[in-house]
Design goal:
Blueprint: E1 2-7, H1 11-25, E2 29-33, H2 45-49, E3 53-57, E4 65-69, E5 74-78, E6 97-102, E7 105-111, H3 121-141, E8 147-152, H4 176-186, E9 191-192, H5 193-197, E10 206-207, E11 219-220, E12 223-227, H6 229-234, E13 237-240, E14 256-259
Parallel strand pairs: 1-2, 7-8
Antiparallel strand pairs: 1-14, 2-4, 3-4, 5-6, 6-7, 8-12, 9-12, 10-11, 13-14
The structure holds one DNA strand of 18 nucleotides.
Length: 260
DNA sequence: ATGGCGCGTTGCACGCGA
């Protein structure tokens, strides 16, 4: 069983690359972020022709998450509210969460807010959103034993997840409050699948479009799979596939795949 | 220090991403 996460940066623009990659990688589940399309316009047909079922929560122009799965997902829900019944509704206005269950594994597909700049209004929104996410996962853990939380976290937890020329405490995605918010979430009982197999730095999942960052390998590892303990033990590999990032007109993110 | 590239938009410059 392979579960992949990929910020595709517009599913309509990236459709051919995503479909090609699905056909080659043969993953069972693909979690996508930044689909940037309303539900009525999601291009379902090419996925269905490959044998995938589609689940999505989209909005116009920004954000949006989707899951393509070979087997139908159970208990699909969008946003925090179905689990956090008392949450303020506006935390679900931006479409950043979709959850479903397959083979006893609850998959939570996330697009964590970017945060713009440390100290900005969007940064405060990101920290607030992460606090809501913590409560969401705490609540899920009450009823679900095997959880895979994956997606674009927009946080590099350690300095070795960041290329040498960008290490800055006040950099968005690396500031201490963001890292602490993510550590607090992991303390609920999640471990990084990638770090089960690879301890050294220099492995990245996102490279800025500008300044030839990919060619110079000036990247960040910000796309993650976080697993509950028994699932973590079952993980057989976790890899970043940089091949799609080399194509013309790529997403700025590469897919990350965990295998059980 | 700044901006760089790419996406979508009742588009033709701008907000946003990270």
């Amino acid at each position: 069983m392979k579960i992949a996460t990929w910020n595709v940066n517009s599913i309509r623009t990236r459709l051919e690359q995503v479909i090609d990659w699905l056909g080659q990688s043969n993953v069972d589940v693909l979690c996508m972020q930044e689909i940037k399309v309303v539900d009525a316009q999601f291009p379902c047909a090419p996925f269905e022709e490959l044998g995938y079922h589609l689940y999505f929560s989209g909005q116009k122009a920004y954000n949006g998450v989707a899951i393509a799965s070979r087997q139908p997902l159970l208990d699909v829900s969008c946003g925090f509210a179905p689990t956090l019944l008392n949450i303020q509704a506006d935390w679900d206005e931006q479409k950043r969460v979709i959850t479903g269950k397959i083979d006893g594994i609850t998959i939570v597909n996330l697009y964590v807010p970017n945060g713009s700049a440390v100290g900005s209004e969007k940064y405060e929104y990101k920290l607030g959103w992460l606090a809501v996410l913590q409560e969401y996962l705490r609540s899920l853990l009450l009823s679900q034993a095997a959880i895979c939380v994956c997606g674009d976290f927009n946080i590099a937890l350690e300095d070795k997840d960041i290329h040498h020329s960008a290490k800055s405490e006040n950099h968005i995605m690396a500031s201490e409050p963001e890292r602490q918010a993510l550590r607090d979430i992991l303390l609920l009982g999640f471990a990084d699948a990638f770090r089960k197999f690879t301890s050294e730095g220099g492995h990245y999942s996102w490279w800025d479009y500008r300044a030839a960052s990919f060619r110079r390998n000036l990247g960040w590892r910000i796309d993650h799979h976080y697993l509950t303990p028994a699932l973590y033990e079952r993980a057989k590999s976790c890899t970043i596939d940089v091949a799609p990032r080399k194509l013309p007109q790529p997403s700025d993110h590469a897919p990350v795949i965990v295998e059980f």
